[in-house]
Amino acid sequence: MYIVALTGGIGSGKSEAAKLFAELGVPVADTDVIAHELTAAGSPMLSKIAHIFGAEVLNADGSLNRARLRAHILDNPSERLKLEHLLHPAIYDRAIQLLKNNDSTLQPPYQILVIPLLFENNRYDNIVNKILVIDCDEHLQISRAMTRSKLSEQEVKAIMSAQTTRKVRLNGADEVIENNGSLSELTEKVNKLHNKLIKTCIVSK
Hints:
By secondary structure, this protein is an alpha/beta fold. It has 9 helices and 5 strands; from the N terminus they run E-H-E-H-H-H-H-E-E-H-H-H-E-H. The protein has a single domain (3-204), classed as P-loop containing nucleotide triphosphate hydrolases (Rossmann fold), CATH 3.40.50. 58% of the residues lie in helices and 11% in strands. A 5-stranded parallel β-sheet has the order 2-3-1-4-5, sandwiched between helices.
């Protein structure tokens, strides 16, 4: 398997970039999507979360109140570590399963693995061949995240401060797509990198 880890800060455009790769026929495994699946109402993982953090992180229908849990862990770094220790191994196992399934059934030249917290979590170091960072100006990050996720500016800045810095991401990147412009510009950049990756994978085989 040739795995390209796609990462970037909140509001950088990771999801849009991943969608564009998927439209090109590239298999995409997204650790955020996996996390949502693992914490769906009635799941064993959600029961563990409620046991550790209290029933108040659940909605009346038994689903996870993500906003409440997010606010709790942002205010308490030690609590964030508890959540990460619980979720990250399960997310990793599911991601590996998806990647292997894609490889055996689709045999693609490469796959995209979306990992927002790639640099905060070295669990994936042994499976990633290339790191792609989606980057944009921080003021644009904030405005996009506020619009997309209905968060306040203060909430977005708190999330950004809990993530690794933009400088660390850029220094650790093998490829960078700057996403300060339009969707058509992002599409063009993704298409260009896709063609480059196809050639790289053909040579590596």
